């Protein structure tokens, strides 16, 4: 406890030293003495409350003590036995702990009774039990002795004091030592020079040094008076006289002198003190202060006579030896039987029981309600704006543009900046000559109309729609919610969902098993191990057998002539392998065998698969007994093996081609780059024209480059998306007996006979319109009114994407196709919208996606099957698709006729065109500038907000006449307007970053993993890469705590020099259960939050896009007006980054372009040369101020944002091309001779834009170069009022010389121009 109110007294006297870190204080002391019990009492109570292992608690306290300094400079002191001089204090503390134990016992009993009775348990019920339980804690003497022994074994300087640690510290302290303690009594010993008081949390612990000389000077006392002040002002040995605390005693002791006993006699003889002692019954005399004088002056203590070590080593409640008095009250009699350890165990047991109760109650509630219905849960990753304050000028919502009227005021120049200067243009190096491109196949001719006599079945309908319209993927949210909405019968909907999820899991497991076998086969083939346990060779085998070459060709076709190296023009056709679809039957047959266990039938493909299976048996990756058994008895699976394998075969075939064929090309380019950098010898180049399989070429190139790619593609543990057609879904559902009634009802079969699978898939579904089974059983698309009509207006908008999907009858579908194939059809007038179901779904077991034909777009226009005179313009319509490809503005506005065709105005009417320039980047996703004509007003400040509740007493009337109730628009003023917006990546990427944080937190959570050597199940065994104590087969099961992050990081690598595919697969099998539970279990928690993160990021994109379109008078929720003339320019710069979310700007660019084009806006690309280095107003080079994003123009005397300035320059470029069909002169590159290489005649002077300022003609173009970035440091002279700043004379002279040189070069450059 220390001296009462000592720290408050020092604070009131103004003695408040600045807190310092340990580094600045350690150098001031030769020895640091730490009072452990007083300094870290809170942590000790936390570590030793109920430790399962005492060594763990010792280790935690050790780590905490080492944060102070190196152990060589520290000496730790631990309290020993109770002191006789402190008997009354021990008795009071013991009595207080007994009362706390009684309170805790009562509170725990209350919690247990409420749990049994089923009553609600609130937070204050737990607080009423935990608070007194914490206060009743006592660190036992046995625990302290165990900690001293633990620290002594590690060579720490630690001592177990005979009694109190502060007495021994004061006795051993030297003049240059420092003491760390939270008790104030150490400050009053004469031998202690300084006390460091710890403050702050343990993560950011700092110390406040109280030096003895500073304390004496602040209080105006001598060292003897300070010690006497501690004796008479209340401490652990004697209490103070009532109403005479440390502040009152300080005034009295200032005038008293002598030794300690003499000052005490004078103090007791004082009139006020004597009056107080007489009122209290003369309890204070010289004898009552004898114990305190013995401790503070003589620094001596005696051990209490009844002190003895406790018998239990783990007890924290051994407080009986410290109680010299006895209380016969009823509470004490009840508390005598209480034990801190027993109460702590009761509380821990109750906490576990309460957690189980909460889990069971939650599961009961979930089971009671429909677990598969959609719940309006708040998206944890969504970004919510703050509430608007009363003063709207103090808060501006996210992604809201800034509007400024008129020119900005001049601003003082920065002290130091990086001035951008001219960097002469250099012609790019000539690229090597490319081979002549192969002749493209002519576009397919438009097919004939379909007559009514033609057999127009399901297959023909899907083929006709695929020829006319592109296929898109529509996201319909959760699978379970869609099935529940389509099938109102709850048991049937659950059965359908379980059936589809089982098919997804079966298909994905087959795919991963096939990938594992392919990877193991390739590793044993190219990197064979001579004997088990010996490392595999680093160089792959160069020669393989003809049989293995055939297997590799079946897995992946060989490289075609177009995929060969571009430097070899004369490529023979001998290297050409099979066609692109040749490996799909092989993969399909192999997957069918892996799922069903049945060997493929005889034939060309079956023989090839059997050969591969035989090779796997020889290598030991497949057991011969299982294959033989499966060959004799045809196994029956829950799902049709042919359909399960089909959903994966095409997907895996494409992955193998992408990995080996495209990967070979990428790795060979990397090898060429390494050869150019002289990291590899020139003879290491990869010869892609060699007559080898594509996989062998890939393995050799990958080994040469250091194995940057995996040996074989391997899907993650998370179940991926699988595609199922309606025929496959019908076959899967037919396998379930409980779903036969709903299939009979769907087909219209009145009798209750069991239908065969062919009756559903071949005889009925083959002649139905695509999407019938999906609409009835999977997703409620194409909703209708009670009259059977399709939804319109608000009902259609409320239904969302489900109302846009149509399930049409065969007659309507035939009419639609005949209209497109008619002779009088004009694609320029095509206005159809919506989607036609393709008859297939994509799902990962949690989310549902539909494959549909996009009716708005035509493949005939996209692939130019019509003549050029009837094809619609791709820049004005979306009939050919809304791709994110940008056409440069110089290729868009070539002539005035292009301006009139695209914008509907002549060159004299271009002043009515609105422009917007967007510069994309990494730190700032979009820097935007808008230029509007005089009669156009942006939609800023008009976004809808939620209606606020009316104030109490308000009638809700509007002040129509006075205009007080109206909200004024910020853009009502006419004249020059400057609108800009800079969207930070931090704002747009917040949902993604929150999801990453959530993932890291849950991956770092420990899992309890039990492994037994006697159990052969590999799902509970630990991987060999994680160190574990070796156990024999007879030992008991071991339990370890690992996290998902630890498991994934401990797996052997799949890439690099030490990559091992076999070891990775073997280790991943050990924790397959836990990884699968994390990614696919727990009610799809991982997939659920992943989907929420994507939806939140999509909303951020939508909000940013809406803000950008509002700058030019548009909105994301409406089409562009027909009379609006708007051009949007986007910078075409491309860059990559290895840090942060480098691809976010690219993702937003693709989204914005497609969204803007779908709304009717004209979007063009702009070359970004000089857009971030020159001022858009004057054309001069700007200077970089405090950061790379803050620029300053010395001509205009104003600051600018880098990306916003680039957006302004992009607007100037687009405007110049619209008006004069050429780029502004100040944004043209200049070569070393002063010519413009981008102009048709580089030595001639280009015409200036019509509205460009006159200063562009005299724009400074310094001819020097400074560094790779083409900029120099510019410092301002002290006497130059135009530039400002302070410098020394030498720096001023140096800057003057540089300025003169730069000016001469500029004049010379202008003369040459």
From TrEMBL:
MF terms in GO: 5'-flap endonuclease activity; DNA binding; metal ion binding
Database matches in InterPro entries: Cas12f1-like_TNB, PIN-like_dom_sf, XPG/Rad2
Keywords carried by this UniProt record: DNA-binding, Magnesium, Metal-binding
Organism superkingdom: Eukaryota
Biased composition (Basic and acidic residues): 1275-1285, 1294-1306
Ranges of Low complexity composition bias in the record: 305-321, 1020-1033
Domain Cas12f1-like TNB: 1145-1210
Family matches, as PANTHER family: FLAP ENDONUCLEASE 1, FLAP ENDONUCLEASE FAMILY MEMBER
Identification of the protein by name: Cas12f1-like TNB domain-containing protein
């Amino acid at each position: 406890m220390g001296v009462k109110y000592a720290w408050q007294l020092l604070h009131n006297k103004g003695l408040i030293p600045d807190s310092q870190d340990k580094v600045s204080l350690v150098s001031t002391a030769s020895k640091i003495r730490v009072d452990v019990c007083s300094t870290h009492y809170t942590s000790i109570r936390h570590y030793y409350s109920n430790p399962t292992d005492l060594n763990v608690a010792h280790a935690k306290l050790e780590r905490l003590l080492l944060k102070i300094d190196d152990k060589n400079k520290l000496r730790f002191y631990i309290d020993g036995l109770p002191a006789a001089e402190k008997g009354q204090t021990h008795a009071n503390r013991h009595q207080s702990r007994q009362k706390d134990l009684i309170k805790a016992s009562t509170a725990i009993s209350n919690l247990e009774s409420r749990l049994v009775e089923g009553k609600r348990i609130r937070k204050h019920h737990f607080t009423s039990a935990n608070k007194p339980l914490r206060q009743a804690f006592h660190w036992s003497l046995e625990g302290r002795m165990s900690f001293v022994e633990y620290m002594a074994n590690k060579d720490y300087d630690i001592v177990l004091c005979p009694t109190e640690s502060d007495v021994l510290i004061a006795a051993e302290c030297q003049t240059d030592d420092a003491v760390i303690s939270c008790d104030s009594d150490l400050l009053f010993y004469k031998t202690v020079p300084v006390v460091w008081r710890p403050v702050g949390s343990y993560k950011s612990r700092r110390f406040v040094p109280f030096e003895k000389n500073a304390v004496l000077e602040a209080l105006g006392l001598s060292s003897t008076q300070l010690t006497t002040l501690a004796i008479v002002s209340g401490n652990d040995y004697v209490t103070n006289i009532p109403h005479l605390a440390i502040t009152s005693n300080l005034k009295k002791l200032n005038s008293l002198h002598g030794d300690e006993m003499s000052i005490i006699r004078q103090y007791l003889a004082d009139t006020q003190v004597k009056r107080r002692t007489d009122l209290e019954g003369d309890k204070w005399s010289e004898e009552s202060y004898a114990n305190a004088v013995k401790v503070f002056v003589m620094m001596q203590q005696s051990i209490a006579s009844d002190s003895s070590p406790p018998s239990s080593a783990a007890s924290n409640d051994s407080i009986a030896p410290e109680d010299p008095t006895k209380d016969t009250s009823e509470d004490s009699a009840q508390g005598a039987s209480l034990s801190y350890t027993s109460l702590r165990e009761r509380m821990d047991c109750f906490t576990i029981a309460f957690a189980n109760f909460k889990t069971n109650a939650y599961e009961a509630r979930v089971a009671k309600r429909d677990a598969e219905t959609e719940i309006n849960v708040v998206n944890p990753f969504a970004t919510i704006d703050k509430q608007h304050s009363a003063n709207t000028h103090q808060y501006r919502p996210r992604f809201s543009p800034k509007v400024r009227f008129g020119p900005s005021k001049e601003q003082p120049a920065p002290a130091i900046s990086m001035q951008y200067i001219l960097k002469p243009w250099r012609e790019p190096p000539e690229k090597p000559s490319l081979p002549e491109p192969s002749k493209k196949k002519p576009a397919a001719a438009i097919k004939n109309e379909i007559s009514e006599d033609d057999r127009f079945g399901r297959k023909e309908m899907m083929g006709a729609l695929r020829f006319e319209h592109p296929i898109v993927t529509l996201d319909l949210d959760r699978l379970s919610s869609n099935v529940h909405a389509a099938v109102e019968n709850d048991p049937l909907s659950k059965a359908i969902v379980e059936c589809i999820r089982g098919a997804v899991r079966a298909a994905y497991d087959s795919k991963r098993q096939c990938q594992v076998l392919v990877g193991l086969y390739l590793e044993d083939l190219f990197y064979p191990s001579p004997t088990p346990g010996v490392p595999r060779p680093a160089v792959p085998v160069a020669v393989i057998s003809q049989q293995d070459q055939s297997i590799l060709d079946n897995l992946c076709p060989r490289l075609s002539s177009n995929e060969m190296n571009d430097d070899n023009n004369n490529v023979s056709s001998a290297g050409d392998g099979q066609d692109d679809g040749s490996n799909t039957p092989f993969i399909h047959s192999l997957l069918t065998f892996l799922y069903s266990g049945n060997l493929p039938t005889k034939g060309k493909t079956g023989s090839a698969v059997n050969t591969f299976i035989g090779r796997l048996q020889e290598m030991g990756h497949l057991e011969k007994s299982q294959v033989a058994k499966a060959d004799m008895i045809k196994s029956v699976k829950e799902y049709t093996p042919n359909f399960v394998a089909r959903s994966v075969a095409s997907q895996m075939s494409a992955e193998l081609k992408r990995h080996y064929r495209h990967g070979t090309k990428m790795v060979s380019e990397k090898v060429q780059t390494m050869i150019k950098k002289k990291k590899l010898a020139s003879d290491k180049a990869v010869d892609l024209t060699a007559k080898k399989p594509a996989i062998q070429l890939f393995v050799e190139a990958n080994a040469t480059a250091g194995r940057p790619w995996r040996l074989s593609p391997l899907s993650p543990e998370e179940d991926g998306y699988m595609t199922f057609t309606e025929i496959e879904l019908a076959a899967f559902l037919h396998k379930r007996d409980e779903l036969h009634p709903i299939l009979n009802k769907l087909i219209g079969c009145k009798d209750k006979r069991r239908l065969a699978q062919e009756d559903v898939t071949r005889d009925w579904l083959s002649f139905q319109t695509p999407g019938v089974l999906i609409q009835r059983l999977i997703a409620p698309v194409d909703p209708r009114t009670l009259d059977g009509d399709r939804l319109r207006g608000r009902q259609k908008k409320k239904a969302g994407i489900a109302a846009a999907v149509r399930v049409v009858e065969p007659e309507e579908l035939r009419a639609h196709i005949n209209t497109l194939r008619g002779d009088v059809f004009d694609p320029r007038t095509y206005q159809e919208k919506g989607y036609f179901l393709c008859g297939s779904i994509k799902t990962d077991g949690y989310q549902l996606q539909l494959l549909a034909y996009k009716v708005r777009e035509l493949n005939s226009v996209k692939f130019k099957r019509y003549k050029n005179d009837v094809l619609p313009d791709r820049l004005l319509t979306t009939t050919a698709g809304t791709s994110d490809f940008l056409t440069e503005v110089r290729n868009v506005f070539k002539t005035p006729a292009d301006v009139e065709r695209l914008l509907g105005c002549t060159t004299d009417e271009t002043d009515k065109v609105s422009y917007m320039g967007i510069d994309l980047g990494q730190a700032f996703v979009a820097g935007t500038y808008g230029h509007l004509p005089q009669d156009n007003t942006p939609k800023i400040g008009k976004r809808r907000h939620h209606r606020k509740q009316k104030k109490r007493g308000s009638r809700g009337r509007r002040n129509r006449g006075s205009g007080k109730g109206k909200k004024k628009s910020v853009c009502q003023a006419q004249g020059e307007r400057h609108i800009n917006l800079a969207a930070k990546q931090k704002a747009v990427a917040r949902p993604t970053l929150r999801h990453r944080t959530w993932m890291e937190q849950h991956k770092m959570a420990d899992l309890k993993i039990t492994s037994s050597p006697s159990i052969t199940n590999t799902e509970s065994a630990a991987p060999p890469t994680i160190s574990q104590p070796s156990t024999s087969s007879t030992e008991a099961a071991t339990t370890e705590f690992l996290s998902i992050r630890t498991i994934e990081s401990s797996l052997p690598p799949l890439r690099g020099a030490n990559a091992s595919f076999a070891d990775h697969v073997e280790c991943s099998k050990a924790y397959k259960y836990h990884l699968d539970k994390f990614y696919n279990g727990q009610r799809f928690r991982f997939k659920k939050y992943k989907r929420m993160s994507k939806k939140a990021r999509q909303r951020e994109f939508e909000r940013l896009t809406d803000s950008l379109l509002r700058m030019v008078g548009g909105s994301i929720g409406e089409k562009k007006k027909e009379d609006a003339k708007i051009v949007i320019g986007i910078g075409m710069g491309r860059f990559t980054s290895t840090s942060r979310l480098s691809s976010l700007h690219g993702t937003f660019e693709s989204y914005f372009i497609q969204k803007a084009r779908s709304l009717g806006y004209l979007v063009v690309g702009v070359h970004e040369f000089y857009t971030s280095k020159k001022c858009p107003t004057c054309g001069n080079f700007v200077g970089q101020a405090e950061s790379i994003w803050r620029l300053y123009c010395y001509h205009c005397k104003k600051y600018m944002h880098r990306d916003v300035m680039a957006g302004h320059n992009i607007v100037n470029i687009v405007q110049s091309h619209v008006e004069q069909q050429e780029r502004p002169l100040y944004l043209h590159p200049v070569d070393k001779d002063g010519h413009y290489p981008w102009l048709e005649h580089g030595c001639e002077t280009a015409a200036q834009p019509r509205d460009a300022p006159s200063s562009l003609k005299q724009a400074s173009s310094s001819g020097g170069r400074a560094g790779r970035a083409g900029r120099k440091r510019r410092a301002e002279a002290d006497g130059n009022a135009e530039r400002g700043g302070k410098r020394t004379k030498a720096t001023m002279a140096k800057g003057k010389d540089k300025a003169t040189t730069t000016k001469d070069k500029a004049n010379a450059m202008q003369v040459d121009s």
